[in-house]
Amino acid sequence: MLTFNLPYGRGEKKISIPKERVAAKLVSKAHEFKPEGTEIEIVREALTNPISSKPLSELVKGKENVVIISSDHTRPVPSHVTMPILLDEIRKGNANAKISILVATGMHRATTKEELIDKYGEEIANNENFIIHDSQDDSQLVKVGTLPSGGELIINKYAVEADLLIAEGFIEPHFFAGFSGGRKSILPGIASKATILANHCSEFVGSNYARTGNLEGNPLHKDMLYAAEKANLAFILNVVIDSDKKVIGAFAGNREQAHYNGCEFVKDLAGVNAVKADIAISTNGGYPLDQNIYQSVKGMTAAEATLGEKGVIIMVSMCNDGHGGEEFYETFKNANSVKEIMNEIVARDRHETISDQWESQVLARILLKYDVIMVTGAPRKMIEDMHMKWAPSVDVALEMADEILGTKDGKITVIPDGVSVVVKK
Fold it and tell me: What is the largest CA-CA distance in the chain?
């Protein structure tokens, strides 16, 4: 038997599989990467030697209103490490600067005070000025242009009014934007609902260029770059993390060049060759990305990329927050078939996109090819409403998969952290 530890919530699930059935274990080299220096030293080094930019401590001179865009509670950015250093650099260059931390929720729910404390630590959560972005609050929003795709670019006014706009985040493979980080702090991070819907249209999400690890020719990326430019995003700090959510790399400076350098670093670490199998077991890397079904679709795409024409995906994801998107859930619950869902999505014009459509589109794409069994804490009915199967454990899921495939000898590829890899076909 071969044993695997699968991240699940804040803990893990240990599973054992007969050795002869294991086709491969696909793991990002980021999880084994040994950086030089501590997390703090890595971040400080990046800020001291920014890419294609003056140091932050110089950029901030003479700037009264400084806004730092920061990822929300759904992203594992180690802000308890990065934010104190950013604040220190800003105040070193301008002790009188008024600093606001703008939490980039995109279209997610608002981040709670408890989540702010968990993410930043009590001192920052209790003493700094936080603004929680709301994509549907018109009083927070202002139009600054028109996206290359034709949608209106409407973003948070506090970012627009800043004398200096900074963003912190992290870079990981993203299932349709190519990579997270950089320009995504603006779109979708602090954009209006209408802007996000225009960018996340079925035409773009369905593009063959809108895939994990790809930026070139990616239509969503093109929109996002424009948004970052119009927002005057002046400086970024993006980190790369391992499976323990520890910083192993940091890239600071120009919003595009620093991001590209970071993406190349991640691509080198995350790239794994697909190993064809009958069953693929994947996860969303544990907390915070496995809080709901919505986010869990990301981990499924890694499994999708390694399966053949026929197969079963076993997705191990805690989903303590349930489905993660009411319209996402209702789309599947109210449909007679997955094909019906896909037909409706594809028929929509890019200006008719509805909330969570992109996640529905990717999940539908997967379900049209493969059975998906969720090993999760989410209610069984919720999973079955969404045209998937529910299992209380990986062992039971494997038995179900064998029954679906009609064999007990099917090969299994294990992907312990599906959101950390770029599976190359």
Answer: 69
Instruction: Supply 131's token pair.
Output: 């603004």
Q: What are phi and psi of 331, to 5 degrees?
A: -55, -45
At 32, list the tokens: 């084994």
> CA 107: distance to chain centroid?
13
280 within 8 A of 25, measured Cβ to Cβ: no
Q: Is 387 a catalytic residue?
A: no
Contacts for 29 with CB less than 8 Å, ≥ 6 apart: 268, 269, 270
If residue 222 lies in a helix (H) or strand (E), which one and from where to where? helix 219-230
Q: Name the DSSP class of 191.
A: B
276-334: pLDDT as tens digits? 999 999 999 999 889 999 999 999 999 999 998 899 999 999 999 999 989 999 999 99
Q: Determine which helix (DSSP H) or strand (DSSP E) holds 303, and give its type and residue range.
A: helix 293-306
Q: Which amino acid is at 91?
A: R
Helix, strand, coil share of the chain (percent; to 5): 40, 25, 35
Q: Please give the Cα distance from 130 to 73 (Å, whole number).
A: 14
Which residues are CB-neighbours of 194 under 8 A, at least 6 positions away? 151, 152, 154
Helix (H, G, I), strand (E, B) or coil at 220: helix
Active-site residue among 133, 174, 259, 323? 174
Distance in angstroms (rounded) separating the CA atoms of residues 157 and 67: 11
What gap in Å lies between CA 76 and CA 169, rounded to an integer?
Answer: 9
For residues 275 and 145, what is the distance between their CA atoms, to the nearest angstrom?
A: 44
Q: So what's the pLDDT on residue 162?
A: 98
Question: 213: which residues sit within 8 A by CB, 6+ positions away?
Answer: 173, 178, 179, 267, 270, 271, 422, 424
Q: Which of 85-89, 108-112, 135-139, 161-165 has the lowest mean pLDDT?
A: 108-112
Residue 350 pLDDT greater than 90, yes or no: no
Q: Which domains does the chain have, with CATH numbers?
A: 2-26+275-424 (3.90.226.30), 39-269 (3.40.50.11440)
Could you give the CA distance from residue 235 to residue 282 in angstroms, rounded to a whole number? Answer: 35
| Annotated catalytic residue 108 | yes
Size of the chain in residues: 425
Q: How many CB atoms are closer than 10 A to CB 122?
A: 10
- Give the CB-side neighbour count of residue 208, counting CA atoms within 13 A: 0
pTM of the shown model: 0.87
In whole angstroms, give the CA distance from residue 188 to residue 227.
Answer: 9
Catalytic residue among 108, 133, 200, 387: 108
